[in-house]
Amino acid sequence: MEDTLVPIALFAIAPLIVWAVVAYRYKSKKAVMTVLEAMTNKGETISPATIYALGIRPRNRHADLRTGIILIALALAFFLFGGIIGEEDAIRGLSGIAMFPLLIGAAYVGLWVFIGRKASDPLL
Questions:
Q1: How remote is the C-alpha of 6 from its chain's centroid?
Q2: Which segments of the protein form a coiled coil according to its record (predicted)?
Q3: 17 & 52 share domain
Q4: Which pTM was predicted?
């Protein structure tokens, strides 16, 4: 029984952490939207300073580049880990796993090159 609980707990903790982060962000964004809705119902004007004070920050122009580089580095770590192990099956398996963050990271870098460096609305 204990031998099966450890792997189950190990694989269950990652979705649990993701769920907790997503639930917290949803709850905080919902609270901000409730405040903004109450302000508009009262007829108050909403200035950019008010939006900034509520915690809504403009998106960093280099966020896609940063995310892409982190994902490419993660893919490189998987490749290197497979090479360090040295077994043919490990190299093939970890290289296959590494392709997912590598391609997603390349897509983020591509988005940064083609879209992200242009001047955008400061509130987005």
A1: 27
A2: none
A3: yes
A4: 0.63
